[in-house]
Design a protein that fits this description.
- The structure holds 2 protein chains of 2 kinds.
- By secondary structure, chain A is an all-alpha fold.
- Chain A has one domain: NADH:ubiquinone/plastoquinone oxidoreductase, chain 3 (Methane Monooxygenase Hydroxylase, Chain G, domain 1), CATH 1.20.58.1610.
- Chain A has helices at 2-29, 58-82, 89-111.
- In chain A, helix 2 (58-82) runs antiparallel to helix 3.
- Chain A is flat, with a radius of gyration of 24 Å.
- The two termini of chain A are 48 Å apart.
- Chain B is extended and about 60 Å long.
- Chain B is built from 6 helices and no strands.
- In chain B, 14% of the residues are buried.
- The chains are: A mainly alpha, B mainly alpha.
Chain lengths: 118, 173
């Protein structure tokens, strides 16, 4: 079991090492002749205007919060789904109640237009 | 020293260092990124304790959702990248001394526990029983009330955030 995690660790190390190697080798080998145009923030070839820090839309926050809520719901339902085969009927009803309560939240978000991108 | 201990020491040092950097960084966005490394360290500690479910949950919920939420919250605020205020308050040494004393008390108290010297034992493969956890969650004699209350809590968070972010904005704008 612990050895299985070792594979995950090796993959994580390799996946951190490869981009780090690419960036550091490029930083070591490349000639450095910076000027203001080269140091400008890259923005798909457009000339950047104004400060890079702009206030984001509140929709990002709402979408992430809705995602977080249903992420936690999925995490709580996962052990229940693993035990599904050995559960009595009322346990299934309890989980359906759990889902329905959160479905109410989803309907509220939908009804209030929180899922629309303005 | 076994390989597991070396992994633990490295992960513990990285976790503690990034935890310090969360509060010591001048830029809030950097703090948020350091927080991700701290949470990843905790996930690895869960994995070394063979709590695989919690390691995955830590990555999925904390790194995948909560840190993204924190970063988006930072992106909503203005001028967070140039904090010019001093980071250290005047009487910083007093909490530091108290924290060291508290740590010494807890560590000294734990050292009297007879299993304090026991090294990490590897559990059998079936030790982490998710099915038992799942049936305990919906068992009336187990944790069904916290389970259902959790959904009400999530509902409250969802409705509250939408009320503040969407409905109030309509009234103001």
């Amino acid at each position: 079991m612990l050895n299985d995690w070792l594979y995950v660790g090796v993959f994580a190390l390799v996946s951190m090492f490869l981009p780090a190697a690419a960036i550091s080798i490029a930083a070591l080998l490349s000639p450095k002749k910076p000027n203001s145009i080269k140091n400008a923030t890259y923005e798909c070839g457009m000339e950047p205007v104004g400060p890079a820090w702009a206030q984001m839309k509140v929709q990002y926050y709402v979408f992430t919060l809705i995602f977080l809520v249903f992420d936690v719901e999925a995490v709580l339902l996962f052990p229940w789904a693993v035990a599904y085969k050995q559960l009595p009927l009322y346990a299934v009803v309890e989980a359906i109640l759990f889902i329905l309560i959160l479905l109410g939240g989803l309907l509220y978000a939908w009804r209030k237009g929180a899922l629309e991108w303005l | 020293m076994s390989g597991l201990q070396i992994v633990f020491l490295i992960v513990a040092v990285v976790t503690l260092f990034s935890g310090v950097m969360v509060v010591a960084s001048r830029k809030m966005m950097h703090s948020a990124l350091w927080l991700i490394l701290t949470l990843l360290g905790v996930a690895i500690l869960f994995a070394t304790l063979q709590a695989g479910f919690f390691a995955i949950v830590q990555v999925l919920v904390y790194i995948g959702a909560i840190s993204i939420l924190i970063i988006f919250t930072l992106m909503l605020t203005r001028r967070v990248m140039d904090d010019e205020h001093p980071q250290v308050i005047k009487g910083w040494w007093l909490p530091a001394v108290m924290a060291v004393i508290l740590f010494g008390l807890i560590a000294g108290f734990l050292a009297t526990w007879e299993d304090f010297q026991v090294m990490l034992n590897e559990l059998p493969a079936d030790a982490e029983n998710l099915a038992a956890f799942g049936s305990a969650l919906v068992n009336p004699a187990g944790y069904v009330i916290p389970f259902e209350v959790a959904s009400v809590l999530l509902l409250a968070a969802l409705v509250g955030a939408i009320y503040i972010a969407v409905e109030r904005k309509e009234k103001v704008g």
